[in-house]
Amino acid sequence: MADLIAPETATVPLDPPYRFDDYRSTVLRSPGKALVVPPAGLTELTGPVFGTGDLRETDADLTVHGDGEAIGERIIVHGRVTDDRGKPVRNTLIEIWQANAAGRYIHSGDQHPAPLDPNFVGAGRCLTDDEGRYRFVSIKPGPYPWKNHHNAWRPAHIHLSLFGRAFTQRLVTQMYFPGDPLFFQDPIFNAIRDERARKRLISVYDHSVTSPEWATGYRFDIVVGGAEATPVADEEA
Ligand SMILES: [Fe+2]
Question: Whole-model pTM above 0.70?
Answer without folding.
Answer: yes
